[in-house]
Specification:
Length: 138
Amino acid sequence: MAITRNQSHFIIMTVIYDELADFVMGGGNASRNANELIEEICETPFDQVDPYIKRSVALTMQHYGDIVAAFQPLLVNWKWERLPLLTQAILLMSYADFYYVEKVDKKIVINTAVDLAKKYIEEKQAKFINAILDGVLK
């Protein structure tokens, strides 16, 4: 069964969120690796998972520090660590998708992020995500 791009974004967001939550709850140690999470969520062996999903998760986690550093100047009166983990996951995924995974139009990346935010978190966070991404994606 083919996975749509929207389903892929949901899977990527979920894996990144789980990685963040696992790291925070584990006191800085992740207990599972992303490949296991991807297999579990996709319900398929890792070698059969859509390469876009694998590449997106890997590049997001590989560039985590650089991505967070790019957001810091825009987080006026906020600290990255205080943002809800799902907001962090959406921002990380969006930034990585734009800069590292594939060249996608800024409007499409922001629209995807806002759609995910509206579906899974509160409206206020969706507006925040829109504003932050608009400032960081150039």
